[in-house]
Amino acid sequence: MAVDVGNNCSQAQIKDDAGVSDLAWCLMDSLAAPLVAVNMDQKIFYLNQAAEGFLGNTFSSAVGKHWGEVIRLFHEDQPVDSVTQDDSVLPESLPKHGLWYLMQHDDGRMIPVRLSIAYTRRSPDVNPSGMSIVIHEVGAIKRAVDQLNHQSTHDGLTGIVNRREIEKRIERLLNKSKQSGQAHALLFLDLDGFKLINDAYGHQAGDEVLRQVVKLFNSIVRERDTVARYGGDEFMLLLEHCSMQDAVAAARMLRATLREYALSWQGREIEIDVSIGVVAVDYRYGDLASVITKADEACYRAKRSCRTKIFTVPPAGDL
């Protein structure tokens, strides 16, 4: 029997129609987590006291509404469409179990939540009479997970992408280059004289110089590009949709800007240079390891050059 949620139905009548025992109602009311029950028409026929407080809706204002009007969900900044062509098909219209969403509160706040959804039946051998939706606020958990994810992909000292993440991004561009033929480029950079800074002023000075260098790099590259710390005083710049000619021009500009930039430590001006290897991110070179090896070798060749400090490896088709 469907639960009647007509305008003239009282809370007591709705509970009677649902066929749920008084003990079950008491248990649901006492739950700390917000719980919303919907019938097979996807209309709310019950919400517990925690849900009233969390959603900012009273029992009387929520009952009879489509659940999507009360639980307004967003996923990746897009509203979750809770309505299907056939409103009786609950599993297709309800969000996936256990996924995280943003829920828009009545006051406009966006709250991270996770939903637990289950069919409700009067007995195991009958068809479902509706579904229960339990809302878990996961703001603190999500912040912790986001922080852990950030730590696993970013350098702790400079805040930029780390070796593990830049290698993933290079590999993605290699796959894209195979599909589209689009040109990309990788700059492998090694700071010249950095060890002398550590020896002369200490590691705190060296750390500060690295942070200043990264700030400079970030101010030069485009938003779509990636600046990464590969290790020690080695960096990578991944330039998307960039020809070798433009990559070499970017390397020259970057080196000139760094040499002119006034790096400082405790009032002392510090001069530093950089050697740069430039290589095309081209699937014809082979796999990720091959591209990185070529970039590393190009940087080594650049470091041995007393004049230009920039060495390029031509696109694979020109080799």
Description:
- GO terms for molecular function: catalytic activity.
- The chain is an alpha+beta fold.
- The protein contains 12 helices and 14 strands.
- The longest helix is centred in the middle third of the chain and has 18 residues, at 163-180.
- It starts with 10 loop residues before the first helix and ends in a 6-residue tail after the last strand.
- The model is unreliable at 82-93 (pLDDT under 50).
Which descriptors would you attach to this protein?
319 residues; alpha+beta; Beta-Lactamase; Alpha-Beta Plaits; 2 domains; 5-stranded mixed beta sheet; 12 helices; 14 strands; elongated; Nucleotide_cyclase; PAS; Rev_trsase/Diguanyl_cyclase; catalytic activity; GGDEF domain-containing protein
Summarize, please:
The chain has 319 residues and is α+β, with helices and mostly antiparallel strands. The chain folds into 2 domains: 11-144, Beta-Lactamase (2-Layer Sandwich); 155-318, Reverse transcriptase/Diguanylate cyclase domain (Alpha-Beta Plaits, 2-Layer Sandwich), CATH 3.30.70.
Number of strands: 14
Give the averaged pLDDT, no decimals.
84
Helix content: 40-55%
Strand content bin: 15-25%
Number of helical segments with 4 or more residues: 12
Number of domains: 2
Strand order of the largest sheet: 2-1-7-6-5-3-4
Domain PAS: 27-77
Domain GGDEF: 182-315
Cofactor: Mg(2+)
Protein name: GGDEF domain-containing protein
